């Protein structure tokens, strides 16, 4: 029996990257999965691939910036598979051109990121919760980011929007716990999705690696597996938490790489 056998999931932004990994793993472990994505062809292709592997999935259009589109996706899921017991609010945007420091940030971009990254979590949960109550419980999982915990010289809106997701996760957990609804989050560090691989130079990837405690980068399944755990009853006594999955990148005193490199040089010269 699969780890989420008989459960029904809606995954937003599931056509690629982290969402695709979570959708694939949930289906592999027995959930029926609706993949909602702006990229409807990608969502349909992902669902086809899951069905080819023996799972159950359907791809549909979803625009996480629009309330009616999220409501329709929830409705579709319940009509298609009879209930909704897992909601993975995963869509999130970043923009390093316009989302800058607070003096220079484009305020329209601030609104857009808050809308897509944070408000979509409120809206998805708002429409899913009545169905979860009806089913006797459910699991809501939100994608935050390590940008919620560590600040940056730019990306003020992204960081603030993801910090709000961490806090909302606690509020939802508190408000609906007695209905058997759990709410947890994942906060990824750098995850080398196909898009990230294309966008980050080798030099930038090496810079990230320098500060990782572990000698490798994260991949989408590192997050997908955590989502699967949070969706399953294996985490049934866990709620309101956001798991930081980041290879130890933010773990240590920032001077550690410097001292490690100094020690290596000394060893070499001895
Ligand atoms: N990759 C990382 O290093 C990383 C790190 C921290 C947090 N995250 C977060 O993880 C989540 C997924 O990121 P990813 O790296 O897998 O991204 P990705 O770009 O690989 O996938 C995002 C998916 O969301 C879809 N999407 C974008 N806007 C949408 C909208 N308005 N409505 C519906 N679908 C939309 C895209 O079409 C795409 O399929 C995001 O919330 C992101 O902020 C990613």
From TrEMBL:
Which Gene Ontology molecular-function terms are recorded? oxidoreductase activity
Determine the domain of life of the protein's source. Answer: Bacteria
* Pfam families reported for this sequence: adh_short_C2 (PF13561)
Q: Write the record's keywords in alphabetical order, separated by commas.
A: Oxidoreductase
GO terms classed as biological process = bile acid metabolic process
Record family assignment = Belongs to the short-chain dehydrogenases/reductases (SDR) family.
Name of the protein:
Oxidoreductase
């Amino acid at each position: 029996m699969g780890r989420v056998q008989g459960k029904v999931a809606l995954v937003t932004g599931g056509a690629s990257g982290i969402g695709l990994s979570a959708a694939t793993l949930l289906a592999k472990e027995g959930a029926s999965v609706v993949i909602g994505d702006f990229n409807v062809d990608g969502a349909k292709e992902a669902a086809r691939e899951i069905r080819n592997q023996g799972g159950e999935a359907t791809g549909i259009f979803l625009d996480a910036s629009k309330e009616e589109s999220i409501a329709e996706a929830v409705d579709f899921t319940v009509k298609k598979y009879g209930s909704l017991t897992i909601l993975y609010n995963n869509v999130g945007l970043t923009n390093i051109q316009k989302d800058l420091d607070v003096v220079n940030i484009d305020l329209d971009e601030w609104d857009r990121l808050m809308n897509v990254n944070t408000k979509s979590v409120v809206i998805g949960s708002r429409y899913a919760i009545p169905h979860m109550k009806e089913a006797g419980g459910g699991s809501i999982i939100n994608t935050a980011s390590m940008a919620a915990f560590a600040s940056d010289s730019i990306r003020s809106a992204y960081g603030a929007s993801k910090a709000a997701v961490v806090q909302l996760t606690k509020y939802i957990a508190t408000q609906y716990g007695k209905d058997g609804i759990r709410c947890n989050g994942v906060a990824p560090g750098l995850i080398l999705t196909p898009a990230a691989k294309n966008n980050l130079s080798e030099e930038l990837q090496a810079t990230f690696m320098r500060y990782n405690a572990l000698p490798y980068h994260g991949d989408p399944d590192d997050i997908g597996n955590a989502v699967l755990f949070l969706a399953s009853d294996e985490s049934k006594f866990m709620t309101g938490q956001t798991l930081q999955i980041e290879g130890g990148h933010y773990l240590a005193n920032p001077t550690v790489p410097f001292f490690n490199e100094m020690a290596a040089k000394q060893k070499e010269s001895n």
